[in-house]
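User: Can you recover a sequence for this backbone? Please restate the input before giving your answer.

Assistant: Of course. Working from this structure:
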């Protein structure tokens, strides 16, 4: 049985006239009659009662018409769904993100993507950059919002943000009275750091900069989450170097001051597999780049 035979039958059943059905299908009547006969022979029942004066549906024909319309309707929907998927308008997109991404572009990016592509199921999962690299390699994620640099050469990256450094300070600390701080002000200060395994770039840049200034940072505690780092600052354990976006979320007992002079800058990037030609990944990356171009400060 061929799909076109179902289409021929539906046309005849709706017109109840072979001539009009053939005209509707842009074909001649004899081939149409032959195809209907083949269809009846194949399923083993008469679908149409024909006389020289009229064409009628048999009881079997009525039942088959409903089923044929359903099959053709589902086929049309399947074709539309495939075309939507090809255009990146439907499907599933799994996005990993570092926690600090929520301070910057990520909320706007996710909201805009969902508004523009409501047919796409978007799955978000907070993960560290190393965890995202592994998940991308195992094809458990489609896109990652990461803190470069990455160590996997099979991943493409596109920078979407760059943030300046801020110092998170307990509000009763002497440095909290300053409008800004210098990296030299960290000399001897107890320092709370985001763990290197969570974000090697931040950890190494702070340590290297302190060493360049002639002192070894006094790291008293590390933590795997930014909120934990800032919470430990609030508890008076020490100060912490964080991306500027962290200051957008006020924390009781903590003040944020910009780091002037030589100071690290922190990039945010999208990462995806170099061999992934998914239209959804392309649309997500393109939208992020468009938002960056239109509102670089977001």
């Amino acid at each position: 049985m061929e799909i076109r035979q179902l289409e021929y039958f539906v046309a005849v059943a709706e017109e109840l006239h072979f001539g009009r059905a053939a005209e509707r299908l842009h074909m001649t009547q004899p081939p149409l009659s032959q195809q209907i006969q083949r269809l009846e022979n194949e399923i083993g029942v008469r679908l149409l009662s024909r006389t020289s004066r009229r064409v009628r549906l048999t009881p079997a024909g009525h039942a088959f018409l409903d089923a044929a319309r359903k099959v053709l309707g589902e086929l049309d929907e399947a074709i539309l769904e495939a075309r939507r998927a090809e255009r990146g308008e439907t499907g599933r997109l799994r996005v990993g993100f570092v926690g600090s991404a929520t301070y910057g572009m990520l909320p706007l990016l996710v909201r805009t993507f969902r508004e523009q592509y409501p047919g796409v199921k978007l799955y978000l999962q907070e993960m560290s950059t190393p965890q995202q690299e592994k998940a991308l390699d195992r094809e458990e994620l489609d896109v990652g919002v990461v803190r470069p640099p990455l160590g996997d050469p099979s991943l493409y990256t596109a920078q979407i943000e760059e943030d300046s450094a801020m110092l998170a300070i307990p509000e009763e600390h002497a440095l909290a009275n300053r409008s800004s701080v210098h990296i030299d002000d960290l000399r001897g200060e107890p320092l709370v750091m985001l763990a290197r395994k969570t974000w090697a770039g931040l950890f190494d840049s702070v340590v290297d900069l302190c060493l360049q200034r002639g002192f070894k940072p006094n790291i008293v505690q590390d933590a795997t989450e930014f909120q934990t780092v800032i919470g430990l600052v609030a508890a008076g354990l020490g100060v912490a170097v964080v991306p500027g976006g962290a200051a957008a979320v006020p924390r009781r007992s903590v003040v944020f001051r910009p780091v002037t002079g030589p100071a690290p800058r922190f990039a945010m990037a999208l990462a995806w597999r170099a061999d992934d030609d998914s239209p959804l990944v392309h649309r997500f990356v393109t939208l992020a780049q468009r938002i960056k171009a239109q509102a670089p400060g977001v």
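That completes the design. The longest helix spans residues 59-86.
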